[in-house]
Every structure is written in structure tokens, then in C-alpha cells.
Design a protein that fits this description.
This protein is an alpha+beta fold and 196 residues long. Helices cover 43% and strands 15% of the residues. A four-stranded antiparallel β-sheet has the order 1-2-4-3.
């Protein structure tokens, strides 16, 4: 059985998707980010939770502060990417549930009254949304460079509050010269998929 999505779109979103390590200086516009969000906000989550929060690092001052918390190998590309996004999980996402789940507003208190439960749910569902965000960046014709090489405590102290947990930092833009490392192998179908 073939996929419904046309092969060019499959390539754009998946087969040619790579972590960009260099970028051109072409800016990423507010309109592009809005279009990305307006697409990916529809990705499914449990209870229609929307815990992902995105902080766009646009000012030179904020960029300089962020770079100090990046691992050495990630500092140069974070310094030069046209746009950098900090992706975090909002651990108080449940406050939005009555509006996001109007047919079951009591879910806010019935399932998410305890902080550890919220943190677990926020982590999982924000990670789903982060994946959608990266695919959305690809759909906009841009490259994404998601990274976890950083001082998480430092970034959380600098940019977040106690109600938000850092997931990743993503460099965004048009790929530059020598943007890609060689393609690494993937697991074969029978290595990753099992039937029981």
C-alpha cells in the first residue's frame, strides 16, 4: 500500500529532513513562524493539551545570553542561525483545558490537579508538539537544527520560570554551505516494528 502524501512532500518532511548545522543569513519572518504555528497547532495530543511554549530568541542580547549556556559544539551555529527557538513544556497547561476541551472542562481538576501528573503529561505532549513544530519548519521550506546539548538549568533560570520545563533549543533558517553531516543509518522495519 502506498502513502497518500505525494513523494515530494514525503521527501520534504521526512526523507530529506536533516539537522542543519549552518544557515544562510536570510531572516525567518514573523509571518513564517505564524504559518508554522497555525499548521502544527492541530497535531493531536491527549485531552487536546497544548503544553508547548515557544520562546523566539530574536534580540542580540537574548542570543548572547543563550549562547553562553550552549555546549561548545552548538555555540557557533546558535550564534549564526537566523532564528533560535527555545521549546518548553508548560506544567500549568491544565489552566487552558476548560477552553481547549469544552465538552469536558472538569478534566482540569479530575486528572491534572497534582503537579507530578501535570509534569508527566506536559513533558509527553509538549514533546509531541515539538516534533510537529520541527516538521512544520520543514513544511515552511526551512531547516531545523534541534539540540539538547546545553546547560538546561542555566537556560531555565535565564529564560523560563518554575512552571516551565526546557525541552530543546532549535536553530531555524535556510541551510547554508556544508549544512549537513553525512546521513546516518536507520533501523530496518523488522528491527523497529514487531507484531504480537
Amino acid at each position: 500500500m502506498s502513502l497518500v502524501l505525494d513523494p515530494a512532500a514525503q521527501d520534504l518532511l521526512f526523507r530529506e529532513a536533516r539537522t542543519a548545522n549552518t544557515f544562510t543569513d536570510e531572516p525567518v519572518t514573523e509571518e513564517q513562524v505564524q504559518a508554522i504555528y497555525d499548521l502544527v497547532k492541530y497535531g493531536p495530543t491527549a485531552f487536546n493539551q497544548s503544553p508547548l511554549r515557544v520562546i523566539l530568541v530574536r534580540s542580540d542580547d537574548a542570543r548572547a545570553r543563550l549562547v553562553t549556556h550552549m555546549a561548545e559544539g552548538n555555540q557557533a551555529k546558535t550564534s549564526t542561525a537566523p532564528l533560535v527557538a527555545i521549546l518548553a513544556a508548560d506544567n500549568e497547561f491544565h489552566e487552558e483545558l476548560p477552553a481547549l476541551l469544552p465538552h469536558f472542562p472538569q478534566a482540569k481538576d479530575a486528572f491534572f490537579s497534582e503537579r507530578p501528573v501535570r509534569e508527566s503529561a506536559a513533558s509527553l505532549n509538549a514533546a509531541l508538539q515539538a516534533a510537529y513544530f520541527i516538521i512544520g519548519v520543514r513544511a515552511a521550506g526551512l531547516a531545523a537544527g534541534p539540540m539538547t546539548g546545553f546547560d538546561a538549568a542555566g537556560i531555565e533560570k535565564e529564560f523560563l520560570d518554575g512552571d516551565h520545563s526546557l525541552l530543546m533549543v532549535v536553530n531555524i533558517g535556510k541551510p547554508g554551505e556544508d549544512a549537513w553531516f553525512p546521513r546516518l543509518p536507520r533501523l530496518a522495519y523488522d528491527e523497529a516494528i514487531k507484531s504480537v
